[in-house]
Design goal:
By secondary structure, this protein is mainly α. Helix content is 69%, strand content 4%. Helix 6 crosses helix 7, helix 6 packs parallel to helix 9 and helix 7 crosses helix 9.
Length: 212
């Protein structure tokens, strides 16, 4: 397993964060309310016990805290289906897209795309802004992976996106280091005692005026 494969697998196995746990809780509340309204659950059923049971049925884990990123999408998908026709808010539709990608085996690509976009945001200042970083990433995908111009982000699979993230990170660090070095390096000249910084024309003119 190479570096890119390890990164893809690591992203898949990573535990959900606090933001994702909050999304799951809200989705579970929507689903539970919909089930009670349609008579599929009694309103005296304990919500926490109910959501733990749903979670266990999907991935044999009873706590949202124990879910990894793949579990996250699958559990969201089940909660979305339990919401039925009530699932029509923007938040619920976003959850549906996440779940749909996982159910279709496209979860790794979704996570890799998220990480590459995050790298573009992190290094935006190096490439003249976020859009510039995205264009640079697209150029890497085009040149390295031979993806058609204009369709690079849409056609790239998880491993290609992850490799591009690594390349973008590496080149951004190199550009930043080169920029810092250029701004810190004085113009050098030579004298009998070794290397010295050259005097500017303005400094030389000032010394001549002092001598007069």
């Amino acid at each position: 397993m190479n570096k890119s494969d390890m990164a893809v697998a690591g992203a898949r196995a990573a535990l959900v964060d606090n933001r994702q746990k909050g999304i799951l809780i809200m989705a579970a509340k929507d689903a539970f309310a919909a089930q009670v309204r349609c008579g599929m659950e009694n309103d005296d059923v304990d919500f926490d016990e109910w959501r733990k049971g749903v979670c266990w049925d999907i991935c044999q884990k009873s706590s949202f805290r124990d879910l990894n990123q793949k579990d996250y999408g699958l559990v969201l998908g089940e909660l979305r289906s339990l919401q039925g026709h009530d699932a029509n808010t923007l938040r619920q539709k976003r959850n549906e897209r996440v779940a749909h990608s996982e159910e279709n085996g496209d979860g790794d690509r979704r996570r890799a795309l998220y990480m590459l976009r995050g790298a573009c945001k992190t290094h935006a200042d190096v490439f003249g802004g976020y859009d510039g970083a995205c264009r640079y990433a697209a150029a890497i995908l085009n040149k390295t992976h031979k993806l058609p111009v204009g369709s690079e982000w849409r056609l790239a699979h998880a491993k290609q996106l992850t490799q591009t993230m690594f390349t973008l990170n590496s080149r951004a660090r190199a550009k930043a280091k080169k920029s810092r070095g250029a701004s810190a390096t004085p113009e050098l000249g030579f004298c009998d005692h070794g290397v010295v910084a050259k005097e500017s024309v303005k400094e030389k003119a000032g010394k001549r005026e002092d001598a007069l």
